[in-house]
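Archive maintenance. Older records in this collection stored only the sequence; we are now back-filling the structure field for every entry so that each record is complete. The fields below show one back-filled record exactly as it appears after the update. Entries are processed alphabetically, and LysR family transcriptional regulator is next in the queue.

ARCHIVE ENTRY
Title: LysR family transcriptional regulator
Organism field: Pseudoxanthomonas composti
Length field: 302
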Amino acid sequence: MSALPPLNALRAFEAAARLRSVSLAAQELHVTHGAVSRQIQVLEEHLGQPMFRRVGRGVAPTAAGEALQRAATEAFATLQRAVETLRRPTRSPALVLGCPGSILARWMIPRMQRLQQELPALTLHLHAHEGEFDPALPGLDLALLLGRPPWPAGWQVHTLAAERIGPVLSPQHPSADALAADAAQALLDHPLLHTASRPQAWPAWAAAQGLDPGQLRYGTGFEHLYYLLEAATAGIGIAIAPEPLVRDDLRSGRLIAPWGFNETGGSWALCLPPGASEDARVQRLANWLAVELERAGLSPEH
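Back-filled structure field:
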C-alpha cells in the first residue's frame, strides 16, 4: 500500500484548490503564503505531477488536481464532522441551526413561537452566519440558506421552495403612489438601495423584466440585507428582497411590492454537513419550514 502524502500538504492543497488562491488559503489556515506554496510543492513531488496551473493572479487545479480536491474536501469534511461528534459524546437535545442574519432576524425569529407550539419536542439553537458557509458546516447540525446547485460535496440537501425576489418600498416613500401605478420601467428613474451580499439581485430582476440592467441607478448600499430592508421600511428608498423576508411587512402594509416577485433559479434549502447521520427531527423541521414558506406565498419546488 503506497504512503499517503503528508497531511499538512493535503490540507494546504485542498484550501488552495477550493479557494482558487494560495493567498486566501494562507489566510484560512493562518500561515504564510510561502508555507502554503512549500506544502503544495511537497505534494507535487510526492505525486510526481503538477496540481495547479496559473490563471491570472490566482491558480486553478489541473484535471488531476480537481479529482484530488474533490476527494480531499469530502475527506476533511468527514473528519471535521467526526471530531465534532467526539466533542459532543452524548446526543444534544438541541439542533444547532445556522442561517444568514437576515433570515434569522426577519423570518426565523418571528416564527419561533409557532415552531415551538407546532413542534414542541424540537429544540433549536440558532446561529447567525454571514458570508459563505464552510463546506464542513463546523459547529452546525444543519443550515437554512438560499442558494443553487452545485452544492458542496457530501451535503444532504432538503429543497424547500423556489426563491423569488422583487422590489419593495414603503408606502411613505415620496414616489410610492406614482410607482405603484406605473410599469416596472419606472424604476430606472430612481436610485435603488442595494447590498453587497447580493450584487446580482437587481440586474437579474431587471433582465427578467426585459429591462437593460445597465440602465439601473444605484443609491445607498448596505453590507447586509437586514439593514437594506430596514432602510426600505423607513421610506429611504426602493429595495429588492426575497419574498418570505418581506411577506409579513407586505401583509401589515409597512411595505408594498407593486411588480410582484420573480423566481431566480435558486432555492430555499435545509442543508446537512457531510457524514450527518439520519435524524427524524431534521425531516420534521424540513416539513415545517416548507409549510411556512407556503404560508408566505411560496410553492415548493417539484
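Update note: The first strand starts at residue 52 and ends at 55. The CA atoms of residues 156 and 272 lie 5 Å apart.
Entry marked complete.
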